[in-house]
Amino acid sequence: MKTLLVTGGNGMVGSYVSKAFSDWEIFNTDIDTLDVRDPAAVVKMVGDIKPDILLHLAAATDVDLCEKEPDLAFHTNAIGTQNVALACQKYNTELVYISTAGVFDGTKPTPYTEFDLPNPLNVYGQSKLAGEHIVSTLLNRFYIFRAGWMIGGGHKDKKFVGKITSLLLSGLKEIRIVNDKFGTPTFAYDLLVGIKSCLETGYYGLYHMANTGTCSRYDVALEIQRIIGADDVKLIPVNSAYFPLPAIRARSEAMINYKWELLSFVKQRTWQGALEEYLINEYLPSVK
């Protein structure tokens, strides 16, 4: 049985690790048991467990908080990742680093591939790209997976899907939704299943790992409305200027799993199918 050490295991993606890696021995940590910003603690944890794989999920992911507190972003997402990578280097452990489509500037008219040049517009994207560079510089045995708009978390879901579903169920008659930002949703469970498949090949490197298809935030809201049957709520498309935020968002974070498909791996399902499964089987039962 292979062993998996997880940092940031109490987050959205971490909540699906035990299901996706059910045949592995899992050592789960969160900030209370392992702060990745503490290099000595990271080295000790990796040395004590000596896992086959380290799945590095710990990160500062609040885009606007990162913009307001760049020291937090770079300390966690860059220096924290360096601490993890150096520990993996010391104990010859394979590292899986989760990155983001937010490393792109959104000017490309078609979805981004792994071969497009990153140019992040905000601090969050900059700090995650710094983590990518650190991992690829310090290690030879690593995987970097860029995820898109995250879906998952059940009753703890504070992301876009959870917020919009909650609003649709709240009794509101009208909801305004941004329609000029585009991306590719990523169901956290599907992300981990794809990662596990890739780990079994030993084909190291950088991958995009998202569900298939491109959409706007408004498109996602319409699909949520259809799935839960909230036809009495009017969804009103608005420009992103309607909701001013501290951090700049790229016009498009849409991406495709180009390398994945060139290597003939099993294609990810559509974002609509993943979203429907998540809402019906997980989110709605949890909020009821």
Description:
The protein is α/β, with parallel strands linked by helices. The protein has a domain at 3-153 and 185-213 and 254-269: Rossmann fold, CATH 3.40.50.720. The chain is 40% helix and 17% strand. It has helices spanning 17-20, 39-49, 63-68, 70-91, 123-138, 160-168, 188-199, 217-228, 258-262, 271-287, and strands at residues 3-7, 25-28, 53-56, 94-100, 142-147, 149-151, 174-178, 182-183, 185-187, 205-208, 215-216, 234-238. The chain has a six-stranded parallel sheet, with helices on both faces. Helix 4 packs parallel to helix 5 (123-138), helix 6 (160-168) packs across helix 8 and helix 8 (217-228) crosses helix 10 (271-287). The radius of gyration is 19 Å and the shape is globular.
List keywords for this structure.
288 residues; Rossmann fold; 6-stranded parallel sheet; globular
What's the quick description here?
With 288 residues, this protein is α/β, with parallel strands linked by helices.
Helical residue percent? Answer: 25-40%
Structural class: alpha/beta
Mean pLDDT: 96
Going by CATH, the architecture of the domain at 3-153 and 185-213 and 254-269 would be: 3-Layer(aba) Sandwich
Radius of gyration: 19 Å
Give the class-level CATH name of the domain at 3-153 and 185-213 and 254-269.
Alpha Beta
CATH superfamily of the domain at 3-153 and 185-213 and 254-269: NAD(P)-binding Rossmann-like Domain
**How would a crystallographer describe the biggest sheet?**
6 strands, parallel
| Gap from first CA to last CA | 37 Å
Sequence of strands across the biggest β-sheet = 2-1-3-4-5-10
Q: What would the CATH topology of the domain at 3-153 and 185-213 and 254-269 be? A: Rossmann fold
Q: Report the sheet-strand fraction.
A: 15-25%
Order of helices and strands: EHEHEHHEHEEHEEEHEEHEHH
- Count all strands and give the number: 12
**Poorly predicted spans:** none
What general outline do the C-alpha atoms trace?
Answer: globular
